[in-house]
Write a structure and sequence with these properties.
The protein is mostly helical and 197 residues long. It has a domain of 67 residues. Helix 1 runs antiparallel to helix 2. The chain is elongated, with a radius of gyration of 34 Å. This is Spore germination lipoprotein GerD.
Length: 197
């Protein structure tokens, strides 16, 4: 019963907001802000949260949300491509903590995307075109020569060398080389001995 009354109140406030469109801009904005605050206050109460949770778990509501997903997608795309959103994203990506969190959260998706792209012939062609660009080549050379890259490379090599799997392989190679060297010396000493006798 309470849920129905709460939902009715929310619906009434929504209709109230849309109904105020005929008023002056400043009056309309004031009413909108007051109504928005009231709706937010209602939704923040335990009963409001419960009603919203129940509403979202309703099958018919889920279907309605799925049906409206295209419209929602378009709205989100429009919002994200606005000048305000662009400025917001720029500021967010200037924050190292946000960049780190974003990178960590998207790592799996980026990895999958890159794997998919590497299989795509059109993407491969574009990558080759980019790599052939003299400006790009010059930039890559300067990056490869940089002290920061050298440090990163040294660290990567050290980390790789310290892995047990590689150490095991290296030990095998060294032992095999030592055995081959030893057998060569034995053959040479036998050959030298037989030649002198």
């Amino acid at each position: 019963m309470f849920r129905m009354s709460l939902m009715s109140l929310i619906l009434v406030t929504v209709f109230f907001i849309t109904g105020c469109s005929g008023q002056s801009a400043s009056g309309n904005e004031k009413n909108y802000d007051e109504t928005k605050k009231m709706v937010v206050d209602i939704l923040q109460t335990d009963d409001g949260k419960k009603a919203l949770k129940n509403m979202l778990s309703d099958e018919s509501m889920k279907q309605q949300l799925v049906m409206d997903s295209d419209m929602m997608k378009k709205s989100v795309e429009k919002t994200l491509s606005s000048d305000k959103a662009t400025d917001m994203w720029k500021k967010l990506f200037e924050d190292p903590a946000f960049v780190k969190t974003y990178a960590n959260s998207m790592a799996k998706e980026h990895k999958k995307l890159m794997k998919d792209l590497m299989k795509d012939s059109e993407f491969q062609k574009q990558m080759l075109d980019v790599m052939k660009d003299p400006q790009m080549t010059s930039h890559m050379v300067s990056v490869l020569k940089s002290q920061e890259f050298n440090k990163h490379l040294e660290k990567t090599i050290n980390n790789t060398m310290e892995t047990p799997k590689l150490q095991k392989k290296m030990n095998k190679i060294i032992l095999k080389a030592a055995e081959e060297q030893s057998s060569k010396k034995k053959k040479q000493s036998k050959g030298g001995g037989s030649g002198s006798g």
